[in-house]
Design brief:
By secondary structure, the chain is of the alpha/beta class. The chain is built from 16 helices and twelve strands. The protein has helices at about 25-35, 50-55, 75-95, 105-115, 135-145, 155-165, 195-200, 235-250, 265-280, 295-300, 315-320, 335-340, 355-365, 365-385, 385-405, 415-445, and strands at about 10-15, 40-45, 60-65, 100, 120-125, 150-155, 205-210, 255-260, 285-290, 305, 325-330, 345-350. Helix 4 (about 105-115) links the parallel strand 4 and strand 5.
Length: about 475
């Protein structure tokens, strides 16, 4: 295994179409620089935001560009070539050894830009299986994956989906999880938040915690997996509907919904969930805490943590298990990598409030078994799912691909011109294909043409962590 400092110093660029979230990208860049000596640069979508503050705090250089997201809109599709060319020019000027995009909406712009610029190593880290299960984005992935040196799946289900759409095994990297910084999730170092004391609850009050943003309801669109149409994909409504059954068994239990609305539409959805709580008469038992910077400390003292998503990567499973918090999660996406039913937690069926209540009650009724599952979960997370493993795996992959480069001069202007000319008809094809698929969608109901992950009762499945 590569030792820190042994690898050749490389110039690495990571991209994400955000300036707010994506703490994982910041942490990866910081540790790639500090532990492996790489020169690192971030490309982001705006000059201000929480992500920008973190980059500045560590003196990580960043560049702001326009990402042509929202590709369902004609103006976004038409603006895409200009965004790509502008970014390709930046890559050529900087002469990066490695360019790595996060999130499919980023790759729409970054992938062709790095390919045209003739970047030596081009990588797309798949932050969630979400886009691989939606009809339009899946088609775009099939049409453009060849521009990458490799794609990096971040869970087993994403890797299987890459194979299903025809990406050769030789172009699929080993799984690299989006691991959080384990220093922030050590139950021996992190003190409990004192939530019971804060809300004046008895010390034996059962606490059931869900840490997740409230995203907007997903529209019925071929850009969205069918199982999330008309739903908030984090499953907040299912958790609220499971609460009455849990409260019949544990009348004094409290449900902590930790997280804020993501943007104005997220706030609208948050208010809809609050209205559901009111409708069910659960105001005294279901508590909306809003954003909490001490979410790790809340997990530290919770009896059960919940991730009830309909479509997800790892969600908040890694963080909860690192805190040895007993975990109930839905059988979707990458959460089954972390939650091994009966070994590191309890798996339940998605969109099934009865089964979710069953899982919660099961852990509350057997605290000794719950604690055992939590300890086993932390052991598993430390073995592969932490930031240390993520950064080490990325550094090893960069070194391996650097050694396997073709013996030629990269950033070759003639290669760029040839690819630019070849890319034009591909762009036209993608535009026509997208418009045709949109017309087909209006003529018939949306169907899922991709086999979903097998589940015990149903078959359903964004996003990386919150």
């Amino acid at each position: 295994m590569q030792k820190r400092g042994d690898a050749k110093r490389q110039k690495v660029c990571h991209l994400v179409c955000s300036a707010e979230g994506a703490t994982w990208m910041f942490e990866q860049l910081r540790d790639l620089r500090d532990l492996y000596g790489h020169e690192v640069v971030a490309v982001v979508s705006a000059a201000e935001g929480k992500l920008i503050d973190k980059l500045r705090s560590e003196n990580i250089r960043y560049h702001v560009t326009h990402f042509a997201t929202g590709a369902a809109l004609p103006r976004s599709i038409l603006r895409l070539p200009f965004s790509v060319l502008k970014l390709a020019r930046f890559f050529r000027r900087e002469q990066f050894d490695v360019v790595q995009s996060h999130v499919f909406a980023t790759a729409i712009t970054a992938r062709p830009a790095a390919w045209i610029a003739d970047v030596p190593v081009r990588l797309a880290m798949i932050a969630s299986p979400f886009h691989l299960q939606a009809r339009l984005s899946r088609t775009l992935e099939q049409a453009t994956w060849f521009m990458e040196t490799m794609v990096i799946p971040s869970c087993e289900w994403a890797r299987n989906l890459c194979k299903q759409i025809g990406i050769p095994r030789s172009r699929i990297a080993p799984i690299i999880y989006y691991g959080p910084d384990e220093k922030n999730f050590d139950p021996l170092r992190v003190a409990p938040a004192g939530v019971r004391r804060e809300f004046h609850w008895p010390e034996d009050t059962p606490l059931i915690c869900n840490v997740a943003y409230f995203y907007h309801r997903m529209p019925k669109s071929d850009w969205m997996p069918p199982e999330v149409h008309g739903r908030g994909h984090k499953g907040h409504e299912d958790l609220v509907r499971a609460a009455p059954q849990v409260l019949r068994a544990f009348p004094h239990a409290k449900f902590l919904l930790v997280g804020s609305g993501w943007g104005p539409l997220g706030e609208t959805y948050l208010n809809e969930v609050k209205a559901l709580v009111h409708e069910l008469g659960l105001e005294r038992s279901v508590i909306f805490t809003g954003y909490r910077s001490d979410a790790n400390r809340i997990l530290r003292e919770s009896n059960v943590a919940i991730q009830a998503a309909l479509n997800e990567n790892l969600g908040g499973t890694i963080e909860a298990l690192l805190m040895e918090c007993p975990m109930v999660a839905t059988r979707v996406g990458g959460m089954v990598d972390a939650i091994r039913d009966g070994e590191t937690g309890v798996l339940v069926n998605p969109s099934d409030s009865d089964d979710l209540a069953r899982g919660i009650i099961e852990l509350l009724r057997d605290p000794e078994r719950a604690r055992k599952l939590g300890r086993a979960g932390r052991e598993l997370m430390n073995s592969r799912f932490t930031l240390r493993h993520t950064v080490e795996d990325l550094a090893n992959l960069y070194e391996e691909l650097a050694q396997a480069r073709q013996p030629r001069q990269y950033y070759n202007i003639f290669v760029s011109i040839r690819r630019l000319l070849a890319g034009f008809p591909l762009f036209v094809y993608v535009v026509i294909k997208t418009l045709v698929m949109k017309l087909e969608a209006r003529a018939k109901p949306v169907r899922n043409h991709l086999n979903s992950q097998p589940l015990a009762a149903t078959e359903v499945h964004e996003s990386g962590s919150n």
